[in-house]
Amino acid sequence: MTLKSALLAASALVGVAATGALAETTITVATVNNGDMIRMQGLMDDFNAKHPDITVEWVTLEENVLRQNVTTDISTGGGAYDILTIGTYEVPIWGANGWLVSLDEGMSDDWNADDLLPAIAGGLTIDDKLYAAPFYGESSMVMYRTDLMEAAGMEMPKAPTWEFIREAAAAMTDRDAGINGICARGKAGWGENMAFLTAMSNSFGAKWFDEDWNAQFDSEAWANTLDFYLGMMEESGPNGAANNGFNENLTLFQQGKCGMWIDATVAASFVTGDDSTVADKVGFALAPDNGLGKRGNWLWAWSLAIPASSDNQDAAKTFISWATSQGYAELVASKEGWANVPPGTRTSLYENEKYLEAAPFAQMTLDSILAADPQNPTVDPVPYTGVQFVAIPEFSGIATQVGQQFSAALAGQQTAEEALANAQELTTEEMEAAGY
Amino acid sequence: MARAITPRKKLMWTVLAWGLGLLIFFPILWTFLTSFKSEATAISDPPVWFFFDWTTENYQAVLERSNYPLALSNSIAIAVGSTLLGIVIAVPAAWAMAFVPGDRTKDVLLWMLSTKMLPAVGVLYPLVLLAKWLGLMDSRLLLIVILMLINLPIIVWMLYTYFREIPGEILEAARMDGASLKDEILYVLTPMAVPGIASTILLNIILAWNEAFWTILLTTVDAAPLTKFIASFSAPEGLFYAKLSAASIMAIAPILIMGWFSQKQLVRGLTFGAVK
């Protein structure tokens, strides 16, 4: 080997080694399968160009499978993931357990925490420490068919009452033509019908627990909530409503079979999108109330958090800074248009004229998010936080069982009284067993 | 005297058999059709059967978004590896139970089967902690061992019923000729039991292929098989049926093809022995 070729080989080796050193940190991100997250995976070139020393591996899973996976990992200190996509329900519980890393330090300089929407950031903060960075936020609102509303001779106010919704639903219903005045969740599950019903119950003055953690399903307010829901769904809801979740109702609405649909604000982009047959006939209004000072809308955010068991916390913070920054919103806008920017996390987005122009539902989304208060979700004071959930570990299990009771009532398998009595009994039992 | 089968009866049975067959096959057919539809067509009501714009965009999207070759190779390694390891352990066990049964053999067999009744989630945390301690999380080896343990009772039971069909005298004759225990199992018993072993292997590969609790919970990226690949295409909020169908077809295609070519052994395996 000549000296020249030896030198060449050596420099090639150094080059390879240097590349290896640059790409030495690999972070694994566990995430849900939603449009915004998939879009981010398609925009990774930008991150890779800015941070060639960090390789990002994605594990995309269905929401419930993801929850099972990351809960197992984080509670055993498994360290399989460096970044978790988690909901508003998990953050306060996991943060308080010491399972998450605080994001108050170590984020990049241009990541502006003060710009986060207060209602969203409040749900991710424990003892003044932020434990997750919101990537996408949502509330719920009324989506309605403007043509059917007009034909019914009614006008949707910006902030309707439940009475108005029920009346309008009855007026729009034309079962021979396959039109149901109201579509709402009925499928059992803490994130399914119980998200809708818990938020709705807040506006009826109901609550899950009193200040001593006693279950409150035997209260008049809960009886009113469930009677109203069942009555309205019987008069104007679709057949088989007890099996309907987000996707089923979305399908019905897109095919022109719902007069109104109360669900996540994210649905706005679907019902006005290309797949919708009624895209140009959709109006939006705030979730209904009963004049008691609380509206029936929820608050949810998918956020990125770092488990304490991660070995790559600095690289993880670098990634989260990129993914939840204003710069990322601009990146999405430049590649796919402003309407596709993940909504509901930053004040600056709602001050951006271009965004407000591109997304007709933007103002209503913001108003809905701001109308929710996870710290004081109910009319009466309660010992818990969370609008459509109670931020305690036992909630998901209990609420899924309660959801089955309410879903059975909607399917006509039992009366509202029986459902509430069963809910009261099982909640009391579970809470006592958990030591409350 | 054998009863005559009238043409009418024959026709009735044929129609019934085809009807049942199609009914069982229908979900796969529907998944196949949906995988070539657009997301909007996939949820249309009334459903569209054959006349729509066939598109392969779902398959493209699925291939773009995930590492199918890795998931496929993991599934093959885990399913085949756990089954073969199970066979190596189960053949001597089944031999002992079939040819030299003790007083408690029946009890042992029943006890083994009873472990299948244990809810998997009950041992989730001990297993995760053990795997973490051994440094085996997200490895093929871990899943090979765990799926082998889960399916071992079934492998032993199946082999036991096959071995019971083999006359013990033949093995005795081999022993008389001076065959050692190893020779007896390897050169006399195994060749006679090849059809039984083959169907056991096929059935257990299918069981391991479809296992979706441990394979999803104990893997992250490197050892993630096709079950985890499918789980990434479903969502509670959004339209995904067409892509999920494409992912499902890609995940079941290899095992479907294997099942097609080995139908005879599979049917024999399912109707042999205890339930014959």
UniProtKB/TrEMBL annotation, chain A:
Keyword set includes Signal: yes
Compartments, as annotated in UniProt: Periplasm
Entry's Gene Ontology cellular component terms: periplasmic space
Pfam families for this protein: SBP_bac_1
Signal sequence residues: 1-23
Keywords of this entry: Signal
CDD domains xrefs: PBP2_TMBP_like
Family designation: Belongs to the bacterial solute-binding protein 1 family.
Protein name: Sugar ABC transporter substrate-binding protein
From TrEMBL, chain B:
Subcellular location field: Cell membrane
Pfam families to which the protein is assigned, alphabetical: BPD_transp_1
SUPFAM superfamilies: MetI-like
Protein name in UniProt: Carbohydrate ABC transporter permease
Major subcellular location class: membrane
Gene3D superfamilies (alphabetical): MetI-like
Family indicated by similarity: Belongs to the binding-protein-dependent transport system permease family.
TM ranges: 12-33, 76-96, 108-129, 141-163, 184-209, 240-261
Keyword presence, Cell membrane: yes
GO annotation, cellular component aspect: plasma membrane
Membrane association type: Multi-pass membrane protein
Domain (ABC transmembrane type-1) ranges: 72-262
Record keywords: Cell membrane, Membrane, Transmembrane, Transmembrane helix, Transport
UniProt-listed GO biological process terms: transmembrane transport
InterPro entries named among the record's database cross-references: BP-dep_ABC_trans_perm, MetI-like, MetI-like_sf
